[in-house]
Amino acid sequence: KDVQKETEPHIYLSKEEVKEKIQSYNSSVTDKLKMTLNANGIYTGFIKVQMELCRPITVQSSQSQGRCAHSNNETAFYLPDGCVNTLHISSTNTVREVIEALLKKFFVADNPAKFALYKRCHKEDQVYTCKLSDRELPLYLRLVAGPRTEMLSFVLREHETGEVMWEAFTIPELQNFLRILDKEENEQLQILKKRYAAYRDKLEEALGEVWKPG
Protein backbone atom coordinates (compact mmCIF):
# COMPACT_ATOMS: atom_id res chain seq x y z
CA LYS A 1 0.00 0.00 0.00
CA ASP A 2 1.24 3.48 -0.82
CA VAL A 3 2.41 5.64 2.06
CA GLN A 4 1.92 9.38 1.80
CA LYS A 5 5.11 11.38 2.06
CA GLU A 6 5.71 15.09 2.46
CA THR A 7 7.20 17.05 -0.44
CA GLU A 8 10.99 17.18 -0.23
CA PRO A 9 12.75 20.57 -0.41
CA HIS A 10 13.98 21.70 -3.83
CA ILE A 11 17.77 21.64 -4.23
CA TYR A 12 19.07 24.22 -6.69
CA LEU A 13 21.84 23.03 -8.99
CA SER A 14 24.49 25.14 -10.70
CA LYS A 15 24.90 24.95 -14.50
CA GLU A 16 27.97 22.76 -14.06
CA GLU A 17 26.13 20.44 -11.66
CA VAL A 18 23.24 20.15 -14.15
CA LYS A 19 25.70 19.31 -16.94
CA GLU A 20 27.39 16.62 -14.83
CA LYS A 21 24.06 15.11 -13.76
CA ILE A 22 22.81 14.97 -17.37
CA GLN A 23 26.01 13.20 -18.45
CA SER A 24 25.61 10.72 -15.60
CA TYR A 25 21.91 10.29 -16.40
CA ASN A 26 22.54 9.61 -20.10
CA SER A 27 25.25 7.08 -19.31
CA SER A 28 22.71 5.09 -17.26
CA VAL A 29 19.79 5.25 -19.72
CA THR A 30 18.77 1.90 -21.19
CA ASP A 31 15.74 2.93 -23.30
CA LYS A 32 17.38 5.67 -25.44
CA LEU A 33 15.27 8.36 -23.72
CA LYS A 34 18.19 10.66 -23.00
CA MET A 35 18.27 14.27 -21.86
CA THR A 36 19.65 17.15 -23.93
CA LEU A 37 21.24 20.29 -22.47
CA ASN A 38 20.75 23.46 -24.52
CA ALA A 39 23.09 26.43 -24.68
CA ASN A 40 20.66 28.56 -22.65
CA GLY A 41 20.85 26.15 -19.71
CA ILE A 42 17.40 24.66 -20.31
CA TYR A 43 17.40 20.88 -20.77
CA THR A 44 14.85 18.58 -22.34
CA GLY A 45 14.04 14.94 -21.81
CA PHE A 46 11.35 12.32 -21.33
CA ILE A 47 9.14 11.27 -18.45
CA LYS A 48 6.76 8.33 -18.26
CA VAL A 49 3.45 8.81 -16.48
CA GLN A 50 1.23 5.93 -15.37
CA MET A 51 -2.50 6.68 -15.59
CA GLU A 52 -4.35 5.49 -12.47
CA LEU A 53 -7.80 6.97 -13.03
CA CYS A 54 -10.84 5.58 -11.20
CA ARG A 55 -13.45 7.86 -12.71
CA PRO A 56 -14.34 8.06 -16.42
CA ILE A 57 -12.71 10.74 -18.56
CA THR A 58 -14.52 12.79 -21.19
CA VAL A 59 -13.20 12.86 -24.74
CA GLN A 60 -14.51 13.72 -28.18
CA SER A 61 -16.63 10.78 -29.31
CA SER A 62 -14.57 10.28 -32.49
CA GLN A 63 -11.47 9.62 -30.36
CA SER A 64 -13.03 7.35 -27.77
CA GLN A 65 -12.65 3.61 -27.40
CA GLY A 66 -13.85 1.04 -24.92
CA ARG A 67 -16.82 1.02 -22.56
CA CYS A 68 -18.64 4.35 -22.84
CA ALA A 69 -21.77 6.45 -22.43
CA HIS A 70 -22.56 9.15 -24.99
CA SER A 71 -23.56 12.76 -24.44
CA ASN A 72 -23.86 15.04 -27.50
CA ASN A 73 -20.41 15.28 -29.16
CA GLU A 74 -18.49 13.92 -26.17
CA THR A 75 -17.98 10.47 -24.68
CA ALA A 76 -17.19 9.41 -21.12
CA PHE A 77 -15.18 6.21 -20.78
CA TYR A 78 -12.76 4.46 -18.45
CA LEU A 79 -9.08 4.53 -19.37
CA PRO A 80 -7.52 1.02 -19.31
CA ASP A 81 -5.66 0.18 -16.09
CA GLY A 82 -1.88 0.46 -16.20
CA CYS A 83 -1.78 2.77 -19.21
CA VAL A 84 1.62 4.51 -19.41
CA ASN A 85 2.32 7.58 -21.51
CA THR A 86 5.69 9.08 -22.43
CA LEU A 87 6.03 12.85 -22.68
CA HIS A 88 8.90 14.93 -24.06
CA ILE A 89 9.19 18.02 -21.84
CA SER A 90 11.68 20.68 -20.79
CA SER A 91 13.15 21.59 -17.42
CA THR A 92 10.86 24.64 -17.30
CA ASN A 93 7.61 22.67 -17.66
CA THR A 94 5.58 22.61 -14.44
CA VAL A 95 3.37 19.85 -13.07
CA ARG A 96 0.29 21.76 -14.23
CA GLU A 97 1.68 21.97 -17.77
CA VAL A 98 2.49 18.24 -17.74
CA ILE A 99 -1.08 17.40 -16.69
CA GLU A 100 -2.46 19.64 -19.45
CA ALA A 101 -0.13 18.01 -22.03
CA LEU A 102 -1.23 14.51 -20.95
CA LEU A 103 -4.90 15.38 -21.26
CA LYS A 104 -4.31 16.98 -24.65
CA LYS A 105 -2.46 13.87 -25.87
CA PHE A 106 -5.47 11.71 -24.90
CA PHE A 107 -7.96 14.24 -26.34
CA VAL A 108 -9.45 14.61 -22.86
CA ALA A 109 -11.95 17.45 -22.50
CA ASP A 110 -12.03 17.38 -18.68
CA ASN A 111 -10.83 20.35 -16.63
CA PRO A 112 -7.14 19.80 -15.65
CA ALA A 113 -8.05 20.97 -12.13
CA LYS A 114 -9.69 17.55 -11.58
CA PHE A 115 -6.31 15.77 -11.69
CA ALA A 116 -3.11 15.63 -9.67
CA LEU A 117 0.38 14.34 -10.46
CA TYR A 118 2.11 12.15 -7.89
CA LYS A 119 5.66 10.93 -7.57
CA ARG A 120 6.18 7.37 -6.37
CA CYS A 121 9.41 6.24 -4.72
CA HIS A 122 10.59 2.84 -3.51
CA LYS A 123 12.73 2.87 -0.38
CA GLU A 124 13.55 -0.03 1.95
CA ASP A 125 10.77 -2.28 0.58
CA GLN A 126 8.23 0.49 1.13
CA VAL A 127 6.37 2.47 -1.52
CA TYR A 128 5.98 6.19 -0.89
CA THR A 129 3.75 8.56 -2.83
CA CYS A 130 3.65 12.31 -2.72
CA LYS A 131 1.29 14.66 -4.52
CA LEU A 132 3.29 17.28 -6.40
CA SER A 133 2.37 20.94 -6.29
CA ASP A 134 1.35 22.60 -9.55
CA ARG A 135 4.62 24.55 -9.85
CA GLU A 136 7.08 21.69 -9.29
CA LEU A 137 9.28 20.63 -12.22
CA PRO A 138 8.95 16.92 -13.12
CA LEU A 139 12.00 16.76 -15.40
CA TYR A 140 14.19 18.15 -12.62
CA LEU A 141 12.88 15.41 -10.30
CA ARG A 142 13.61 12.82 -13.02
CA LEU A 143 17.16 14.15 -13.44
CA VAL A 144 17.95 14.13 -9.72
CA ALA A 145 16.50 10.61 -9.21
CA GLY A 146 18.12 9.15 -12.33
CA PRO A 147 16.44 7.11 -15.10
CA ARG A 148 15.41 4.08 -13.01
CA THR A 149 11.62 4.09 -12.58
CA GLU A 150 11.87 1.97 -9.44
CA MET A 151 13.65 4.93 -7.84
CA LEU A 152 11.06 7.43 -9.04
CA SER A 153 7.95 7.19 -11.18
CA PHE A 154 5.08 9.55 -11.97
CA VAL A 155 1.39 8.76 -11.59
CA LEU A 156 -1.64 10.73 -12.73
CA ARG A 157 -4.67 10.38 -10.49
CA GLU A 158 -7.88 12.22 -9.75
CA HIS A 159 -7.91 14.37 -6.66
CA GLU A 160 -8.99 12.45 -3.59
CA THR A 161 -12.76 12.31 -3.04
CA GLY A 162 -12.63 15.00 -0.38
CA GLU A 163 -10.60 17.23 -2.70
CA VAL A 164 -12.73 16.86 -5.82
CA MET A 165 -13.70 20.19 -7.36
CA TRP A 166 -17.20 19.16 -8.37
CA GLU A 167 -17.83 22.64 -9.76
CA ALA A 168 -15.21 21.84 -12.42
CA PHE A 169 -17.52 19.16 -13.86
CA THR A 170 -20.19 20.04 -16.40
CA ILE A 171 -23.79 18.83 -16.09
CA PRO A 172 -23.39 16.42 -19.06
CA GLU A 173 -20.26 14.95 -17.44
CA LEU A 174 -22.03 14.34 -14.14
CA GLN A 175 -25.00 12.82 -15.98
CA ASN A 176 -22.61 10.52 -17.88
CA PHE A 177 -21.02 9.40 -14.60
CA LEU A 178 -24.45 8.57 -13.17
CA ARG A 179 -25.40 6.60 -16.29
CA ILE A 180 -22.15 4.60 -16.14
CA LEU A 181 -22.59 3.93 -12.42
CA ASP A 182 -26.19 2.78 -13.00
CA LYS A 183 -25.00 0.48 -15.81
CA GLU A 184 -22.23 -1.00 -13.63
CA GLU A 185 -24.61 -1.44 -10.69
CA ASN A 186 -27.06 -3.32 -12.90
CA GLU A 187 -24.25 -5.52 -14.31
CA GLN A 188 -23.05 -6.40 -10.80
CA LEU A 189 -26.64 -7.11 -9.71
CA GLN A 190 -27.13 -9.52 -12.63
CA ILE A 191 -23.86 -11.30 -11.78
CA LEU A 192 -24.98 -11.73 -8.14
CA LYS A 193 -28.40 -13.00 -9.21
CA LYS A 194 -26.82 -15.62 -11.50
CA ARG A 195 -24.38 -16.67 -8.78
CA TYR A 196 -27.09 -17.19 -6.16
CA ALA A 197 -29.38 -18.89 -8.69
CA ALA A 198 -26.57 -21.39 -9.36
CA TYR A 199 -26.16 -21.93 -5.58
CA ARG A 200 -29.91 -22.50 -5.24
CA ASP A 201 -29.94 -25.06 -8.06
CA LYS A 202 -27.09 -26.99 -6.47
CA LEU A 203 -28.75 -26.93 -3.04
CA GLU A 204 -32.05 -28.14 -4.48
CA GLU A 205 -30.21 -30.87 -6.38
CA ALA A 206 -28.43 -31.95 -3.20
CA LEU A 207 -31.68 -31.93 -1.21
CA GLY A 208 -33.33 -34.03 -3.93
CA GLU A 209 -30.57 -36.63 -3.59
CA VAL A 210 -30.96 -36.73 0.21
CA TRP A 211 -34.74 -37.18 0.14
CA LYS A 212 -34.81 -39.55 -2.81
CA PRO A 213 -36.75 -42.74 -1.84
CA GLY A 214 -34.95 -46.02 -1.74
From TrEMBL:
PROSITE patterns reported for this sequence: RA, SARAH
Origin: domain of life: Eukaryota
GO molecular function, one term: zinc ion binding
Primary location group: cytoplasm
Pfam families given in the database record: Nore1-SARAH, RA
Localization per Swiss-Prot or TrEMBL: Cytoplasm, Cytoskeleton
Any one Gene Ontology cellular component term annotated for this protein: microtubule
Keyword list, A-Z: Coiled coil, Cytoplasm, Cytoskeleton, Metal-binding, Microtubule, Phosphoprotein, Zinc, Zinc-finger
Keyword Phosphoprotein: yes
One GO-annotated biological process of the protein: signal transduction
Keyword Metal-binding: yes
InterPro entries registered for this protein in UniProt: RA_dom, RASSF1-6, SARAH_dom, Ubiquitin-like_domsf
Start and end residues of each SARAH domain: 163-210
Coiled-coil segments: 182-209
Annotated ranges, domain Ras-associating: 71-161
Protein name: RASF3 protein
Originating organism: Nyctibius bracteatus (Rufous potoo)
Gene: Rassf3
